[in-house]
Amino acid sequence: MSSRKKSKKIIPPIPCNWKECKLFFDDIWELNEHITSHFDELHQENKAIRSCPWIECTFETNNFMELKRHIYYHGYYTGLLIRGKYECEENKNIPKCKAPTKEFDKIPDLKYNFVCEWLDCQRTFVSIVEFHDHIIQHASFEYEIEKSPNDIRPKVKCKWSICNKLLENRYRLIEHILTHSNKKFAACQNCGEVFRTRTTLFDHLRRQPENNTHKFQCEQCFKYFATEKLLRSHFLNHINCYKCSLCDMSCPTSSSLATHIRYRHLKDKPFKCTECEHRCVRKIDLEKHMMHIHSNHVHRCQEAGCNYTVRTYNLLRRHCLEVHGNSPFIYMCHCCDKLFKHSKYLSKHLIKKHDFKLPSGHKRFTYRIDENGFYLLETLRIESLEVTKQILSPHPIETSDLTQDSTCYEIVSMTNEQDQRIIVANDANEARLVGEVVISLPIDNISL
């Protein structure tokens, strides 16, 4: 009877590229120990400046410990290259890297030893391989301590500096803690870039311009992506995960929320124009003000026979579209297909003719370009479940009370009556409705 047991992957042996050494090793640990034996040769050299003995490496230093860290990393990096080559050869459907070929190993600047930041540890390591092994032992030991006598799998806390994240099991804890140490899985054999997982290595190969099939399109902004995973990752940029504590404005990033608060709710404008009384929130705003108002710099239309000049590039772009382009009207009402030259005219039209109201917390409508090149009203706003709770709750919700369920989102349809909401989860059968629902998900299963 033939065995159906999967055969164990056999990774090709890893070479030691120390000059004049032609040995190969089955794993990175054996190579690491072998490199240690080579250091006796370096000790015998009484030189102020020491050169790296690795093949084709030109690194030099007067610090012996820095040289050791550098050489140990060479062995680690060689293992990543061998793993990357193996993974690509095993997956024939993955395209080859078209980026410029690396000239030598990409070794980072290693001025200090690797420090374990696990609670009450602080051990340091010259070898990155020993460093990674050490922190894995921390994770395994922590799991054994937390494991109950009844062998019920506990949630284990990561005790890395300023972390304290709870993980479901030993495997998740080890996987998580290795992100703190920046452990890599493989390197691209062509360009030498390193990657944390096999998936990110394959994404690197697929997303290159020569290999990109443009198969996956975002239905919110119509950008194309090489893989479904990249599309899903990109789609998170359209989800508002942060709510302003002073109004109902929601933003996709913490930085955009900070910008909103700074401009909307704070009166401080520290940057004053030296030519007039105008004040600005940021230095870059002042620079734009100086260029647009107080400088002689202008943008000129490049069309033959046109002498149009303007101070801002956006106005020049609008001029080119309206006068020289094929689309003088670039804003379109999604209700009656009427065309407008400016967003403010379309906004007035939507409010007066179609009884639209601004979304709660927002000062203006937002528009997005469609596949035909027209800007249409953004009629969907996607929010995280946590933001939904904060907006709908009549009482302030403490951050500690939120579930932090990143697999649940809310889609808000802006209407002329009231925001219509649907809370969606990873499983479509678990969708929970709030009010009347007239919309559906932009893409299936948007959670990662």
From TrEMBL:
Organism name: Ceratitis capitata
Pfam families: zf-C2H2
Gene Ontology MF term list: DNA-binding transcription factor activity, RNA polymerase II-specific; RNA polymerase II cis-regulatory region sequence-specific DNA binding; zinc ion binding
Protein name: Histone H4 transcription factor
Gene Ontology CC terms, in alphabetical order: nucleus
Keyword DNA-binding appears in the UniProt entry: yes
Keyword DNA-binding: yes
Protein origin, superkingdom: Eukaryota
Keywords for this protein: DNA-binding, Metal-binding, Nucleus, Repeat, Zinc, Zinc-finger
Gene Ontology biological process terms from the UniProt entry: negative regulation of DNA-templated transcription
Protein's cellular compartments: Nucleus
Gene: HINFP
Cross-referenced InterPro entries: Znf_C2H2_sf, Znf_C2H2_type, ZnF_E-box_Homeobox
Domain C2H2-type residues, every copy: 156-185, 186-214, 216-238, 242-270, 271-299, 331-359
